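User: For my dataset I need records formatted as: sequence, then structure tokens, nothing else. Please produce one.
Assistant:
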Amino acid sequence: MENSEVDKGRRRFLIGATSVVGAAGAAAAATPFLISWNPSERAKAAGAPVEVNLSKVQEGQLVRVIWRKKPIWIVNRTEEMLANLPSNDNLLKDPESGVADQQPSYAQNPTRTREGKEKYLVLIGICTHLGCSPTFRPELAPADLGAEWKGGWYCPCHGSRFDLAGRVFKNVPAPTNLVVPVYSYKDENTVVIGLDENGEAV
């Protein structure tokens, strides 16, 4: 009688212990599988929107950030830089930004920016010829770029030139203007690269 009671107690204990260990093992086996459905932290970071504080960008200054492994340029253009843009029009391939896929619709204008924020230019810093990164040359009429140069970018790889709206000059290898990424403003001093005006990541 005593032996039979001991056996029942031991049996209940073993069944309970086995169930707990089995459940824990199943959970441990399933966890990596379920986690693999989610994008990695690296994948999230690669496509995540990037915020830039514009209050720290001085007039005439270019700042660089990385978004989706691409260099992004943001320039706080001076009044003189903006005033000089129309004088480049007859030297450019696409002064009106007619190639629609080079910028969002709100940047399809001579300054290539959102309305009311003309001083801040946002560009992907990759030449549209063969993918080099052009050099920022904001100075006026330098000896190596000529008397008509009013600031912009010069690509050292093959000589392509872009003005301070990222518009490509005629007679250079690059076929189109520099690309304007999708961006929006979180507030007066914060631009968010990769986030549209509806708050959706692109």
